[in-house]
Write a structure and sequence with these properties.
The two termini are about 40 Å apart. The protein is of the alpha+beta class and about 800 residues long. About 50% of the residues lie in helices and about 15% in strands. The radius of gyration is 30 Å and the shape is globular. Helix 1 packs across helix 3 and helix 2 runs antiparallel to helix 3. The protein folds into 5 domains: about 80 residues; about 130 residues, Beta Barrel (OB fold (Dihydrolipoamide Acetyltransferase, E2P)); about 280 residues, no CATH class; about 40 residues; about 260 residues, Ribonuclease Z/Hydroxyacylglutathione hydrolase-like (Metallo-beta-lactamase, Chain A, 4-Layer Sandwich), CATH 3.60.15.
Length: about 800
């Protein structure tokens, strides 16, 4: 294990990390903090040569580093220049602002849009011209609503351009369990997105405005590499190789990313230590053949490593590997022994001193945790297992040893990163260890071939093409194997997002087991580990036994997830679907999986409009569904045809609801169905006046004393029926407002009978229908109702013990 007196860099990195975490949560007075830092520094200088102050000196150094971490974190998180684009308000209308800036990297282009990073310089809003600074993601979209054929502009890195469009904040997390894209961008100092509709609204002013190093070295080298890959590889093979060699992952499809995550090999796409190792080994061999001495050889290799960092985008993993590689080369030059923990501590110190926000970046966390765990845990496997294998004298020893090394390397990395991958992906790949045994060596070979393919293209297209043909076969096999691994029935399991207590407990158990020094300690450490797991389990048990209803923000649509105290899951509607968005796949499924839900007891489709049924097919295909409840409506559409087919193939029971039906097989919970009657939806599935809204399923969910009304998109005619036939029975505590707050629903007779204390409106931000209607909002406010809206608050979550109602602040 680590001897702390021998690893000062690691110790100081941990102290700096503690300071950064504290500083990210607490804002301190900068002037006062700087003053304290100066005073502490003076004290350290005064006593630096006095041996009897060793402990005091050490504590002062620790305090100095901790306070510096707080200060750096405060500066990085809370302080921005006055002219930062972060401080500019977003604009509401399309194409009413102009932004001038320089494209800082190679644009990503597809048939529908061009996307790139823009270093902002000037923003023009109406008559105001504002000097601004900071990076902005710019997206120039093709205008789909014009008949004129406009060619996309030719945009290159270094172009100064003027864009006409809309300045927006990045989308923040809208539902529990979602990836927080806004927070991710902020970690990389990107605070705004500029949307441009129409290629004619992007104009190049001048070219080659980046610094010489980027404009004439990095960008041409990257363009040469990408064009070479595009020339000889296509589809998934091209995007995979780009990720391996250049770190460019924008071309990787969502389907391919999902397969890599499910198979537990997502790390293959990240440029990291192996790339650095290839550069060091290749250059060392080449320069040794040229008889270049050690010092100049090392300087050349270091220059190439720095170049490669910039070439691949300077991600945390490649910077870490490059710094450690440089330290190893330097140690070799000065004939000093290399200490892994000092090297990785120094790498983290340098990265965090430059940008403390990197501490919270997934790439930084996974890179460092995987590297540390591979070294520490693999060492244990090596001591107790691999040393015995090396002593074997059997046939096939080398192959067995190589496979075992790969197995334990993969297992070591997995042990160290399991809680982190669960936290970010909500999945645990079961097939990961086996998949890595095959995929890692093949990916290493493809990476080496990719390097040679690009390098040889500089002097021989023929040699480059031959290498690429071999690599194509290898890449195709790898991708096919990874997709096959991911497709296996039990290749991965969905796990509810892990909390901080569980994560801490996991690492505590790992440390307890790793610090076993002899056989006598095995039993006692195992008992301590089991007690730790038991304590965490007890603390995590939910003893409150509450009903939880989440009104998911699916945009302009509807979906509510009901989680009952007896662990039943009921979905009321399934959001919307368009050619580019499926609520079931993109919104509802991630929410369910983040809560550890793999089976849905009941799906209620209030009616068959797309904004209520759009995500149902994905959910039916990918979750175990107990019962599908509908109003009996029948329409002909690709969505409903597919739904009927899935229901039939999977044998999912389907139930048609009518007014007067009751479901009461759940603990302390009943569902009273009030609508529709046969008058509104007949036996043939025809809805009166062909108005699907007035054929919506309407019911009251009653949990002890709590009552919630769900009415789909029921309109005034249906509400009139309810008011006349149910009268005071309609009184509920919470009203799920029908038809997204449209003027056609929530009629006066109905609201007089319903008299809700709370109302929830599900609608999309800036929707084209202008839902909810101001008339409906005033109508609810005049009855003393507290209103919650998914367009303003994102997902609305309520919990109740059957008496008290709490709206949860989940963000």
């Amino acid at each position: 294990m680590v001897r702390w007196e021998c690893v000062p860099a690691l110790k100081f990195a941990l102290i700096l990390t503690a300071g950064i975490i504290t500083g990210s949560a607490i804002y301190v007075n900068l002037l006062a903090t700087i003053s304290v830092l100066v005073i502490i520094s003076i004290c350290i200088l005064i006593i630096k040569n006095k041996t009897y102050f060793d402990l005091t000196k050490f504590l002062l150094i620790c305090l100095l580093i901790f306070l510096f971490g707080m200060l750096k974190s405060n500066i990085d998180f809370f302080i921005t220049p006055d002219n930062s684009i972060k401080n500019i308000q977003s604009t509401q209308s399309k194409n009413n602002s102009k932004l001038i800036g320089v494209i800082s990297d190679i644009p990503d282009q597809d048939p529908a849009r061009i996307r790139f990073m823009l270093c902002a310089e000037i923003l023009i809003k109406g008559s105001d011209t504002i000097q601004v600074s900071g990076d902005v993601i710019a997206e120039v979209r093709k205008n789909m609503f014009t008949k004129e054929k406009v060619m996309p502009p030719r945009l290159n890195a270094g172009d100064r351009i003027i864009l006409k469009g809309k300045l927006s904040d990045p989308g923040s997390v809208r539902n529990p369990g979602e990836f927080d894209y806004k927070k991710y961008l902020e970690l990389h100092n990107v605070y705004k997105i500029f949307y441009v509709t129409g290629y004619e609204n992007a104009e190049v002013i001048s070219s080659e405005n980046l610094n010489f190093f980027y404009q004439h070295i990095i960008i041409p080298a990257k363009l040469f590499s990408l064009s070479n890959i595009d020339k000889y590889q296509t589809g998934d093979e091209a995007s995979f190789l780009k990720g391996l060699v250049t770190g460019e992952r924008s071309d990787i499809s969502q389907e391919m990313k999902t397969a890599f995550v499910d198979a537990g090999v997502m790390h293959l796409i990240a440029v990291s230590g192996l790339n650095v190792a290839y550069i060091i080994i290749s250059l060392t061999l080449l320069l040794s053949l040229l008889r270049i001495n050690l010092i100049p050889r090392t300087i050349i290799i270091v220059i190439f490593l720095i170049f490669y960092c910039f070439y691949t985008g300077s991600t945390a993993s490649i910077v870490r590997a490059s710094i450690m590689g440089i330290l190893v080369l330097t140690a070799f030059c000065i004939e000093r022994r290399v200490n892994f923990f000092n090297s990785i501590g120094a790498a983290s110190l340098l990265i965090l001193i430059y940008d403390s926000k990197q501490l919270f970046d997934p790439g930084f966390i996974l890179s460092f945790s995987a590297t540390i765990s591979m070294v520490i845990i693999f060492t244990k496997f090596d001591e107790h297992i691999l040393t015995k294998l090396r002593d074997w004298n059997s046939r096939g020893k080398k192959i067995t040893l190589a496979v075992t090394v790969l197995l334990f390397t993969s297992l070591s990395a997995q042990i160290g990163t399991v809680p982190i991958t669960i936290a970010y992906f909500g999945k645990l790949s079961v097939i990961s260890i086996v998949a890595n045994i095959v995929a890692v060596p093949l990916a290493n070979l493809s990476l080496a071939l990719g390097f040679f393919q690009i390098i040889t293209a500089a002097f021989s297209e023929y040699i480059s093409s031959v290498i690429s043909e071999v690599n194509n076969i290898l890449l195709a096999f790898q991708i096919g194997f990874i997709k096959w691994s991911a497709s296996l029935e039990y290749s991965y399991v969905n796990i509810a997002k892990i909390n901080f207590l569980s994560m801490s407990g996991y690492y505590a158990v790992v440390i307890i087991l790793l610090t076993i020094r002899n056989k006598d300690q095995i039993f006692s450490r195992a008992i301590i580990g089991m007690l730790t797991v038991l304590c965490i389990h007890v603390f995590n048990i939910d003893t409150e036994n509450k009903l939880r209803v989440t009104f998911i923000d699916v945009g302009q649509g509807d979906c509510a997830v009901i989680q009952t105290p007896d662990n039943r899951v009921i979905l009321v509607d399934c959001g919307r679907m368009s050619y580019s968005f499926d609520s079931g796949e993109r919104t509802i499924a991630p929410f369910l999986r983040s809560n550890g839900i793999t089976a849905i007891d009941m799906i209620i489709l209030t009616h068959l409009h797309n904004d209520h049924t759009g995500g149902v097919n994905y959910l039916l295909e990918n979750f175990t569904v107990g019962t599908l409840i509908t109003s009996g409506q029948k329409i002909v559409s690709p969505l409903t045809d597919k739904m009927d087919s899935i229901v039939q193939i999977k044998g999912i029971p389907e139930k048609v609801i009518r007014a007067g039906d009751l479901i009461d097989d759940m603990e302390n919970l009943r569902m009273y169905f009030l609508f529709p009657t046969g008058k509104f939806v007949n036996e043939s599935g025809y809805t009166v006046d062909n108005n699907l809204n007035n054929g919506s399923v309407a019911f009251i969910l009653k949990y002890r004393e709590l009552e919630i009304f769900f009415g789909g998109d029921i309109e005034e005619e249906g509400e009139k029926f309810l008011a006349e036939n149910y009268s005071d029975f309609l009184k509920t505590d919470v009203l799920k407002v029908s038809h997204h707050g449209s003027i056609t629903s929530t009629s006066i007779p109905f609201i007089i009978k319903n008299k809700p204390a709370y109302a929830v409106i599900s609608c999309g931000m800036f929707n084209k229908f202008n839902h909810p209607s101001s008339i409906i909002l005033n109508r609810l406010k005049n009855t003393g109702t507290t209103i919650y809206r998914t367009d303003l608050e994102a997902a609305v979550v309520l919990e109740s013990d059957g008496k008290e109602i709490e709206f949860v602040d989940w963000k």
